[in-house]
Amino acid sequence: RYRLEQFLFSVNLLFILTLVITAIMVFLFIRQHVLIRREFETQAELMHTRQLRRESEEKYRNIFESVSDFLFFHDLEGNFIETNFAFKKEYGIDEEQLTYPNLRDMVPERYKSQVDDYLERIKKNGKDEGLLNVVTKDGSELIIEYRNLLIYDSTGKPAGIQGSGRDITERIRA
Asked: Does the predicted model carry a pTM greater than 0.90?
């Protein structure tokens, strides 16, 4: 009888251990499933966010390229870094051209000092607007009305100048 009780106790203990191990395994399986599902949802959200960003970038790139005003970004020394199609067309910049001109190269000799004044004003005030005489690749002299803004990097340092310009030559000369 004592052996039978020990045997039954051992069987019950093994049964309880089996139940505990099974419960732990079920818990771990459910936990793994939840983690995999969260990872999948996170990846899906990330892919969706990336797609929205691409669409937004494409939309604004299309606006940037199709607007008739001159849109540009230049560094603090006046070296153009990026321009839109209207700017490239007016100044004869080839799409494959690796380097862009400096603002000083586009201004008639008699107005070159205005470039340094402009760069100082925008560094001091964070923005600038006004009129600037420029010469196109074909030698035509234009009067450009511009509005520009100093852009800062993630550390708060000035990174460059973003701006827009419009040819108002006809309006001024009329």
From this structure: no
